[in-house]
Design brief:
- It contains 3 helices and 11 strands; from the N terminus they run H-E-E-H-H-E-E-E-E-E-E-E-E-E.
- By secondary structure, it is α+β, with helices and mostly antiparallel strands.
- It has one domain: Beta Barrel (Lipocalin), CATH 2.40.128.
Length: 279
């Protein structure tokens, strides 16, 4: 027994040379307590898989995000992931003008996922979240091929060559001003160039409850641009209440269903889903 112990100790002190290149590896040092400690190279290691990073390209730019998580500090990352999912769903739809029924459903589903994850909006103490200029990225109502959405508006098509440019909302929470601004290009007979116009529909607004906004129409101001930019702005007369169509009462309301520093989702009184980003 003593001879076997001596032989084992000798092997530990002087390991045999490697047969592949006749070189000896560095000596292995062992320490024994109640149980032997294996060399580092022999230990089992468990590595957690790295979280994958996804990249999505869209018309709103190339952005990177992590897969959504559901607990702790990952809740913020999940919200950002759902925001990007909505943006990538509605981008390329030309504000909704070329949206198909499938596109409308995908946008609706993505918006509901974000609204549910973020929870109800309460603007009673955070009305300043609406402050600023917002660019319309998508409106489900534009799929009707009317610039008024589900309300009366200029049709888009071959009979009237109207091209919709950028659409904005400018909100001032102090003066309660609420302006819808649309850039429109109207075709003209050859050889005249198209007429570029910026129409501003001025409203006042008030908060109803926690997240509903009521807007009251005041006037429409038109400003030409491009070759006719020297023409001063002018107001379009408003129809008297007695002859104004009942479908255009001059007031409306919508609910803010999601808002943060860079994105806003609203639901109109006629079922319109709109997605805005900070301009």
């Amino acid at each position: 027994m003593a001879s076997s112990s001596s032989t084992f100790s000798s092997l530990l002190r002087s390991p045999p040379p490697l047969l592949s290149d006749h070189r000896s590896p560095p000596p292995c040092r062992f320490s024994f307590s109640s149980s032997p400690v294996l060399p580092r190279s022999s230990r089992l290691s468990f590595n957690l898989p790295e979280r994958r990073t996804l990249s999505v390209k869209s018309t709103v730019g190339e952005v990177s995000f992590r897969e959504p998580t559901t607990s702790g500090s990952g809740e913020k990352e999940r919200i950002e992931s759902l925001k990007l999912k909505l943006l990538s769903t509605v981008s390329g739809l030309n504000r909704g003008l070329v949206a198909s029924l499938d596109d409308l459903q995908r946008a609706e589903t993505a918006a509901k996922e974000l609204e549910t994850a973020a929870g109800p909006v309460d603007l009673t103490n955070d009305l300043d979240k609406l402050q600023g200029k917002w660019r319309l990225l998508y409106s489900s109502a534009f799929s009707s091929r009317s610039l008024g959405g589900s309300r009366p508006g200029l049709p888009t098509g071959r009979l009237i060559p109207v091209t919709l440019g950028q659409v904005f909302q400018r909100i001032d929470v102090f003066s309660k001003d609420f302006d819808n601004i649309a850039e429109v290009e109207i075709g003209a007979p050859w050889p005249f160039p198209p007429v570029e116009v910026t129409a501003t529909l001025a409203h006042k607004f008030e908060l109803l409850g926690t997240c509903k906004i009521k807007i009251i129409f005041e006037k429409t101001t038109v400003k030409t641009s491009g070759n006719l930019s020297q023409i001063p702005p002018f107001d379009i007369p408003r129809l008297p209440d007695s002859v104004r169509p009942s479908s255009n009462p001059g007031t409306g309301d919508f609910e803010v269903t999601y808002v943060d520093d860079s994105m806003r989702i609203t639901r109109g009184d006629r079922g319109e889903l709109r997605v805005f980003v900070v301009a």
